[in-house]
Each structure stands twice: as structure tokens, then as C-alpha cells.
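hi! just following up on the protien thing from before. the input was this:
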Amino acid sequence: MPEKKDKKTANQKIEEKLFLKRKSSWLGYTPAQEKAVFDFCDGYKKFMAECKTERLCVRFIEDSLKKAGFVDIGRAVKIRKNDRVYKKIKNKVIIACIAGSDPASFRLVGSHVDSPRLDLKPSPLYESSELALMQSHYYGGIKKYHWVNVPLSVHGVVFTKSGRQVDVHIGEKDADPKFIIPDLLPHLAQEQMKKEAPKVIEGEDLNIVAGHIPVKDDDIKEKVKFSLLKYLNDAYGIIEEDFNCAELEFVPAVKPADIGFDRGLVGAYGQDDRVCVYTSLRALLAVKNPAHAGLALFVDKEETGSYGDTGAESFMLYNFAGEFAAKSGLQVDPAAMLEKSKSVSADVTGAMDPTFQSVNDPQNVSYLGRGVSIEKYGGARGKSGTHDAHAEYMQYLRAMADRNGIPWQTGENGKIDLGGGGTIAMLLSRYGMDCVDAGPCLLGMHSTCEVASKADIYSAYLLYRAFFED
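and the predicted 3d structure came back as:
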């Protein structure tokens, strides 16, 4: 067969060299690579089905670490090269580390295990209109109208008056009962529909239906509430006062699913930020012989500002660095270790939505399927509340991704005076370490079912792994 002649003009060749042209990473995958993407995401969906709260995430991570030979740092006497240690903090944070050839600095990937949800108020239970209901207080940034008429499950812990911990997990199995917040029927919603979106369903309207059958006793005033409390006492030993010492979280009972005829997308609750939790965990577990100490940080409270003793605002990372240094025999201040380190804030960003394109700058937004998004800054309106990565560090990440053949893109989370959103990047960078945000983009972020591209999920895993191993 005669060789095809290159019909490109001189200017077309120059254009090809000079212009930035991102394309779907699916186009560059071989059949074997596509299979790797799909196989990886099968494991991811299983993780997402099992880990709908921060406590469940930390339990899964700890089990995975133990199977891979990690030990609690409190039991480690001396940390040597390639030793694997972890520290669990209040069942809501876990820090895992592999000692490298140079243990005096970290390659750190940080993600957060919490997601928007409905928590119960301290005294939530009441009866009205032949129903037992529970008052909720939403956690994180949500559109409140998303949470009505959605089957819910509940997970968490309750402490009885005697101090016994009761684990509660109801609604995920097919045979389990579910819970729901009913919305007003459209036939009677003329006034409701005149309200602005934030007011259509208000915070005090998020009352969860929890029971219906009354006790057959005329001497009891609140008959349905009585029946529900009696059931909880018989099943779990709980009394109403125990709700004051409980953490019960209501989340969508829907299971993760492939989206689209071609199954190229994943739909699931909580992909912000558990997509980065899973991919960074898998990346750390794949590391064999790192040059620097590889550290995966899984934190809580990001969705409410990272405050508190399990949020990135706390000193838990500094404390871990000090413990790691001491047990590694290093005569170095933890602050100096962290300043020498490099980090990735593993968090998601918004994807271009074909229905709502006007909220984004099309040249500076992430697109589903074009690879992991490496974002120089987040924040809002004048880069407020963000870390702005330096050009040198962006070049470092670009060179590393290109060298390893990892599909990537960059962008912003919405137009300048519209968008924004914080991550833990600014809290990692305060130690003086380089940091940048990197993660998949999502459709429907903070909704009850977010959507990600399987190609982007896999490229995030590849980026975090290359970073740990670099």
C-alpha cells in the first residue's frame, strides 16, 4: 500500500504545535486500557456502596491498610525504609504513610471523607398527623429540595445512658425499611412554587418520616412516638435521651450505578470527595519503594469549613509528622519536614454541564472524560479563600503527568463572579509545602447522585500513584 502523504500545510503544522487542544481521554485508550478503567471502577462502585459516611470510610480504609501490612504507629517502635504505618483519629480521620528512602519529607495526598448529608437534631423525635418524624439539620452545602421524596438510609452511633455504643445501619439492604421526607403535592403547591429555590424547601422542613403504627392504648397520648421508641428500646436498648449522645446521619439509599448505554459514567451519592479517597488509597497501596515518605491524609469536616479536631484546620498532621520523625530517628522539627514536602489536595471540581453552560467559561472549565483536573486555584471572586499554586509547581505536576502518559486537564469552578469553592489546599499550604488541587470533575456536585467519568476516576488514580512514586 502506498504511503499516505502528509497534506497538512506549514501553518497547520505550526498550529498543531502551538495550540492547546484537549480531547477525550477515551480516544487514546487501547482495549486493554479501557478494560483496566472498567475493572478499577467496579471496585470503586463497591467501595461507594459500602462507605456512605465518614466512619464507614475510615473503617474501610483501616481494614484495607491492615491487609496491606500497615500497622498502627502507636505500636511501631522504630520506623525504617518501606515500613507502613497509620494513625486513626476519633474514627473519623486516618493518616497512612510508607517510609521512603528520604523519610524527612512527604509526598502527601489529602482528601476528605465527609459529604453533604442530613444529621439529626439533638432531640429530633416528635409525632404529628399520625406519623412519627425526626427533625434533621443539614450538613454542608446542599440544595434542600434535592432531599425530598428520596429514599434514605441511616448510619451512625448512639450511646446509651450506661455508656454502651450502639451501631446503627438501616436502609441499605433491599429488605431494610427506608426513610423519606415528603414534598407537597403539585395540586396544592401554587404558593410554594412562587418561592425562590432556597425557600421551596427550608431547613426546618427537612423532617424525616420514621414511623406510623400507633400503640393500642388510650392512656398513651403520643401513640406513634411511643411505638417507635418502644421498638428502638427493644431492638437497640435506646431511650429518647440517648439521641442527645448520638451521631445519626441520613444519606440517599440509592446504590452506585453505571450511567449511559455505554456505561462510561458512574452515578453515586458522595463522590465529593470519596472518589478521591478511593483513588488515593488505591494509589498508596500500589506504591512499592518510594523515594520520599508517601502519606495519604483522609480528613473530616471539609464540607463545613475543615474546623474542629478532625478537620484539616487542626494540628493532627503536624502531630503525626512529629511522631513519625521521632520513630524514624530523625533529628528534625516537624514544621521543617512539612515545609520540605509536596502535596496534592485531592478534591473534585465542577464539570461542564451541557444544560447549564452559561455558568462556566468554556475555555476554563473541566470536561467529563478529559482526565484528572489539576486546578491552580479554587476559591471565589478574586481568589478569596484559596491557595494559588505557583507556576513552578504547576510545571512539576504537568511534567510528571506527561512523563507518565496520564490524561489531565485544568480549569476553574465556574465564572469569576459566580463560582468558587474551598478545599483543604490552603490548610496544607500553610505549612509552607507546595500544594495544588487535583481530582475528577463531577456533574451534579453536592446532589443526592453525582456523576463522574470512569476515565477521569482512573486518571486520578494514575496521577496520585505517580506522585507518591516520583
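The mean pLDDT is 95.
Residues 335 and 431 are 7 Å apart (CA to CA).
cheers
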